[in-house]
Write a structure and sequence with these properties.
The protein has 311 residues and is α+β, with helices and mostly antiparallel strands. The protein is 30% helix and 27% strand. The strands form three sheets. Strands 8-10-7-11-9-12-13 form a seven-stranded mixed beta sheet. A four-stranded mixed beta sheet has the order 3-6-4-5, with helices on one face. A hairpin with a 7-residue loop joins β12 and β13. Bound molecules: adenosine-5'-diphosphate and magnesium ion.
Length: 311
Amino acid sequence: MSEFDLIAGHFLRGAIRQPETRVANGDDASIHALADGHELVVSTDTAWLGIHWPKDFPLDDAMDRAVCAALSDLAAMGAKARWIWTAITLQHQDQALLMGQGIVRAADRHGVEIAGGDTTSGQQCGITVTVAGIIPEKTAMCRHQAHVGDHVFVLGSLGRSALGLAEWQKGKHDGDYVPYFTHITPQLFAGELLAKAGIRCCIDVSDGLLQDANHICEASHCAMRLDLNCLLDAFPSPKHREKDVLIQAVLTGGDDYALLFTAAPSMVIPEVAALRIGQCVAAKHGVYTSTPFLDNRPYLMDYPRGFDHFT
Ligand code: ADP
Ligand code: MG
């Protein structure tokens, strides 16, 4: 099969076409017209076999995850997801079928148009997903817009994806937490709702709560005091030797794609599923936490740990 047959057969099948698209996928570039008073929100993410998904993981699920992880960045900004571009590297031509299926499945499920892409062969299987969305101007939720005194909320679960990955790696592919690892739900609907309600600061938790909370602290020049009792309460009471594993997963486990946002205490939070977990405080940047397993004593995570590709 030629490169072009491969592309047409597997990657040009998305069902969605957005009203703003003037020139769709298939040309050298796509063209999109924005309505007055709107801004374009763009992000890109790369995922590699063996680094972002295990070697024994189904390729269609890996592609679905990659698209959803990228879309989660649009959710964090509060944008309406519109388009994706997927640049993929195949080791063998026969990987195209599952890769295409996963990409198209995720795009159609979240109502986004596949606006373009690139297909190459290479040593390792990987994908780069670029996503774009639209938002009314000056309403995006940014990391630098938290203020001292703001309450801190989490929307979505934390820790379960890391527990699911651990189960998967032990060969327990039907483990209770595995679905949290295998299937990502970008909080697109909630993100848009929060931005519309006037929330101005949000991040998606992709690298671990402490690390991502710290990104807000650094950008907004504040600290956060987080009470993690409620997050840990969401789990069945762990046996003694499992407590550390649980705390580690909730505080530093990546790939949950929950939204962490801040809001002035006077604000009405529109999303009932959001859990208040703390407050922004005036202190040296950093995240202070307390947990029931530390006798509720607060402690400072000096350097928040979470996923880092280079350490
Ligand atoms: P060019 O050489 O002009 O960069 P390509 O030959 O790489 O174009 O691709 C031909 C068309 O197929 C382009 O419109 C491109 O957007 C589309 N395409 C290629 N690979 C993918 C992919 N993985 N997903 C979606 N569209 C793709
Ligand atoms: Mg060209």
